[in-house]
Amino acid sequence: MVQMCIVSGGNVLVQKVTNSLGTVAIAAATAAGRIENYMFIPCQGFNNGVGTFTGQNMGAGNIDRVISGMKKTLKIVVPLAFVLAAALFLFAGPLVSVFGVMDDALELGEMHLHFIAPFFVLFTAYMVFAGVLTGSGDVLASTSITLSGLALRVICANVFCYVFRWGFRSLYYAIPVGWVLCFILALVRYFGGKWKSKALVKHGRPDEA
């Protein structure tokens, strides 16, 4: 719940930057954003699946199975993400045009998707690690990582737009910056191993129940 509120709040702040760039930028960003949302659906599905799997096995005290499941999920997710990213890059123009944008807005939306497509693989892998952290009960770390990535995206969007004057590019340049930070922080937290002790169910002697 907290993460969803954070994301929604961050999107409002990014929208403020978008609105300052004019109607063409708004149309392009809206169309590209809708396509991004569709791309996120399989990511969220794997995130939820890994989270549920992790929670069940943490409750059973089977951490080795959590690690094995995470690795197997990555073997599925990463190749799938490559395929989706390639499709997003190759068909960016037609996908944006589905939303009725034309001319300059179409060109900007296509540029947006071309730029973020390669980073989509990284984001998908991050969602798997985030699922492990959330499912293990390490929700404070998971939420903090989401907040950090979103905060950096908002800051970069504003700096790129109002300081460097990069215009519409400011919006999509800022997206992978936040993703990279989230991925790095999730990796550090995962390999740090603290999530392994976050299970809500603690196993003791039967007579302690």
List the helices and strands and how they pair.
Layout: H1 2-19, H2 23-59, H3 63-90, H4 92-97, H5 103-116, H6 120-136, H7 139-162, H8 169-192
Oligomer: single chain
Strand segment count: 0
Unreliable sequence segments: 205-209
So how many helices? 8
H/E element order: HHHHHHHH
How confident is the prediction overall: mean pLDDT? 90
Percentage of residues assigned to helices: over 70%
The main sheet comes to: none
Q: Please give the domain count.
A: 1
Which structural class should the secondary elements be placed in? mainly alpha
Task: Explain how this protein is built.
With 209 residues, this protein is an all-alpha fold. It has one domain. It has eight helices and no strands. The protein has helices at 2-19, 23-59, 63-90, 92-97, 103-116, 120-136, 139-162, 169-192. Helix 1 (2-19) runs parallel beside helix 7 and helix 7 packs antiparallel against helix 8 (169-192).
